[in-house]
Specification:
Layout lengths: L26 H13 L8 E7 L17 H8 L2 E7 L5 H10 L18 H7 L3 E6 L17 E3 L9 H8 L1 H21 L14 H14 L4 E7 L10 H7 L6 H12 L6 H31 L6 E7 L4 E2 L5 E2 L6 H4 E2 L1 E4 L7 E8 L3 H8 L14 H6 L8 E7 L16 E7 L3 E6 L5 E5 L16 H31 L9 H9 L4
Parallel strand pairs: 1-5, 1-6, 2-11, 3-4, 3-5
Antiparallel strand pairs: 2-9, 2-10, 6-10, 7-8, 12-13, 13-14, 14-15
Helix pairs in contact: 1-2, 1-10, 5-15, 6-9, 7-10, 8-10, 9-10
Pfam families: Sulfatase (PF00884)
Organism: Halorubrum lacusprofundi (strain ATCC 49239 / DSM 5036 / JCM 8891 / ACAM 34)
InterPro entries: Alkaline_phosphatase_core_sf, Sulfatase, Sulfatase_N
Length: 522
C-alpha cells in the first residue's frame, strides 16, 4: 500500500520515482519519457503550449512532490522542467478555481458569477493573436458553454453528453457510484473478453471516463494544426469515484485490490458509513491508481507531439485544479474547506531548451498560468489579468512575485451540504491567505479565524489564532486586511450583479444538471 504522507512544505531535490512497475507497463510511458528528453535538447523556440489540468489532483499525489508516488511521465517532465513547490489553487473545487486558470481572475470578482462569460480568457487573447486554440474537457459540467468556457477556442468539446430519456439512464447519471458498482461487478467478464480479443485492460472501469475521447481529440487537433497552437486538456479520472483500470492498481500498490475490495470501499462511502483505516487505505490506493492512469495518458499525448515532430517546440504546463481530502479534516473528496490537501496543487512547467530540475520554493497562485502561457507564446497579457507570469522564473531563475495567494470557498450550514454553491448567497464566504509558511483562514460572515504555521504543522491541525504569539499576531495583522479587501471586492461585484439582474437568469439545462449531479454537485 502506498503511503499518504504529506510533503507540502518539503522540497524534493531530485524528482524521480524509486518505485518499479510490473511487467505489464505500457510502452507508451517510456516513449513519453523519451519525448520529454527530446524537448530538452532544442534551441528553445516555443511555438506551441500544451496545458494539462487534472481534476482533484493534490500536490503530494505525484512523484515530483513525494518520492513514494509513482508517476513516471510527470516525474520526467519535472526532471526536465521547473517545479513550483508551493503552488496554490484559488478555490477548493473546479468552478472556484478555473476562473484563475483560464482567465487569471478570482471567482466572483468580475460579475458575481462562477464562470468566465465576458472575461478576457487565455484562449480569447491567444486566438486574437493568431494562435490556433483547442480545448477538450473530460465531461466536467462546470467547464462548458453555460459558464463561458468555449470562448476563444477554435475547437472545443466538453464531452458532456445527453443522459438519455429513460429513468434508468437518468438514475445512473445522477449516481455514478452505482454505475461504478455495475462496471466493477461485470469487469471480470469484460477483461476476459478483452484478453480473448487480444486487447489490453487499459480502459478505465467506468465508461463515463472520457480520457480516451480527450486523447483522440487532442491528437486530431495536433495532427490537423499547422500554425502555432494552444491546446488545453482536462482530465477527470482522479475525481470521485476512483475506478481505474486494473493494471494501474497493480502499478501503485504492493498487492492486488480485488473487485470486492473496490465495491466495498465505494459502497461504504456512497452510503455514508464510517470509513475505517483499511477502507481509507483502499480509497487512497484507488486514487493513486487513477493518478497513474492519467500519467500514462499524458505520456501518450507526449508521444503525439513527438510523432508530429513538434516536441522540441512545445512547452508543457501541468496543474491540478484543486486537491482531494482523505479525512485529514474529517471528510472525503473536496468539500468547502481551504486546507492544503485541497489548495496545495502541482504546477510543472517544461519549456524546450531550458535547464531542467529547477525547484521554485516561493509561493505562486494558479492565476499565473494565463500570463505564463501568453509569455511563452510571445503574446502580450491584457492588463485585467491578476496573475504574474512565471516565465522569468522558468527561463532565468528569477523569484516570482511574492504577493500572498488568496483562495475562497462558500459553505452552507453543513460542510457537506449540497448543492455546490454557485453564488455568494449560498452560504458563508471563507477566504484564505497564504505565503510560503503561513495559512490564514477567515469566515467573512462570522469573523471566525484560523492560523496555521505549515513548516511546523504541515497538515494544519494546530490553530494558532486563539492564542497567537507575537510572530503569529504579526501574520494576522498582515493578512487580515488582504481578506477584507478581497471580501469587499466580491461583495461589490455581488451588489452590482444583483442591481443589474433582469430576473431572467439562464437556467442550467436538465442534461447538464444531471451530469453535475454525477460529480456529486446536486
Amino acid at each position: 500500500m502506498v503511503s499518504d504522507t504529506s510533503t507540502s512544505d518539503t522540497a524534493v531535490s531530485n524528482p524521480t520515482s524509486s518505485d518499479s512497475t510490473d511487467s505489464d507497463s505500457t510502452d507508451s510511458d517510456s516513449t513519453g519519457s523519451d519525448s520529454t528528453d527530446s524537448t530538452s535538447t532544442s534551441d528553445g523556440a516555443v511555438s506551441n503550449v500544451l496545458l494539462v489540468t487534472i481534476d482533484s489532483l493534490r500536490a503530494d499525489a505525484i512523484g515530483p512532490y513525494d518520492n513514494d508516488r509513482y508517476s513516471p511521465v510527470l516525474s520526467d517532465l519535472a526532471a526536465d522542467g521547473t517545479v513550483f513547490d508551493r503552488s496554490f489553487a484559488t478555490g477548493n473545487w473546479t468552478p472556484f478555481s478555473f476562473p484563475s486558470i483560464l482567465a487569471s481572475e478570482p471567482v466572483f470578482a468580475r460579475n458575481g458569477d462562477i464562470g468566465v462569460t465576458g472575461a478576457r480568457t487565455l484562449a480569447s487573447v491567444l486566438s486574437e493573436a493568431g494562435i490556433a486554440t483547442g480545448g477538450f474537457n473530460a465531461a466536467n459540467g462546470f467547464l462548458t458553454s453555460h459558464w463561458g468556457y468555449p470562448e476563444g477556442f477554435d475547437e472545443f468539446e466538453p464531452f458532456v453528453t445527453s443522459v438519455g430519456s429513460s429513468r434508468y439512464s437518468r438514475y445512473l447519471a445522477a449516481h455514478p457510484t452505482v454505475e461504478a458498482w455495475i462496471q466493477l461487478a461485470t469487469s471480470p467478464f469484460r477483461r476476459l473478453g478483452s484478453k480473448l480479443r487480444g486487447e489490453s485492460d487499459d480502459r478505465p472501469f467506468l465508461d463515463a471516463s472520457r480520457m480516451f475521447d480527450v486523447e483522440d481529440s487532442a491528437t486530431e487537433f495536433v495532427d490537423d494544426t499547422d500554425e502555432p497552437f494552444f491546446l488545453w486538456v482536462h482530465y477527470m479520472d482522479t475525481h470521485t469515484p476512483y475506478v481505474p483500470a486494473p493494471r494501474y492498481i497493480r502499478e501503485v500498490s504492493d498487492g492486488l485490490i480485488g473487485t470486492h475490495r473496490m465495491l466495498h470501499a465505494h459502497t461504504r462511502t456512497s452510503l455514508g458509513w464510517e470509513v475505517g483505516e483499511r477502507t481509507l487505505g483502499d480509497l487512497r490506493t484507488l486514487y493513486q491508481a487513477t493518478v497513474r492512469q492519467v500519467d500514462a495518458s499524458v505520456g501518450r499525448l507526449l508521444d503525439t507531439l513527438e510523432a508530429a515532430g513538434i516536441a522540441d517546440e512545445t512547452a508543457i504546463v501541468v496543474a491540478g485544479d484543486h486537491g482531494e481530502e482523505f479525512q485529514e479534516h474529517g471528510h472525503l473528496a473536496h468539500y468547502p474547506k481551504l486546507y492544503d490537501e485541497l489548495i496545495h496543487v502541482p504546477l510543472i512547467v517544461n519549456v524546450p531548451g531550458e535547464d531542467g530540475g529547477r525547484r521554485v520554493s516561493e509561493h505562486v497562485g494558479l492565476d499565473a498560468i494565463p500570463p505564463t502561457v501568453a509569455d511563452l507564446l510571445d503574446v502580450e497579457s491584457p492588463p485585467e489579468w491578476r496573475g504574474e507570469s512565471l516565465e522569468p522564473a522558468v527561463s532565468g531563475g528569477e523569484s516570482p512575485d511574492q504577493e500572498p495567494v488568496v483562495s475562497v470557498t462558500v459553505r452552507g450550514e453543513e460542510v457537506t451540504e449540497q448543492p455546490i454553491p454557485r453564488s455568494l448567497s449560498d452560504g458563508d464566504l471563507l477566504v484564505s491567505v497564504r505565503d510560503a509558511e503561513w495559512t490564514y483562514i477567515e469566515n467573512a460572515d462570522t469573523a471566525e479565524t484560523e492560523l496555521y504555521h505549515r513548516p511546523s504543522d504541515p497538515t494544519q491541525q494546530e490553530d494558532l489564532s486563539a492564542d497567537p504569539s507575537d510572530e503569529a499576531l504579526a501574520v494576522v495583522e498582515r493578512f487580515a486586511p488582504i481578506v477584507a479587501d478581497h471580501v469587499a471586492e466580491l461583495r461589490d461585484r455581488q451588489t452590482d450583479a444583483e442591481a443589474a439582474d433582469d430576473g431572467e437568469d439562464e437556467e442550467v439545462d436538465e442534461h447538464l444538471e444531471a451530469r453535475l449531479e454525477a460529480l456529486g454537485y446536486r
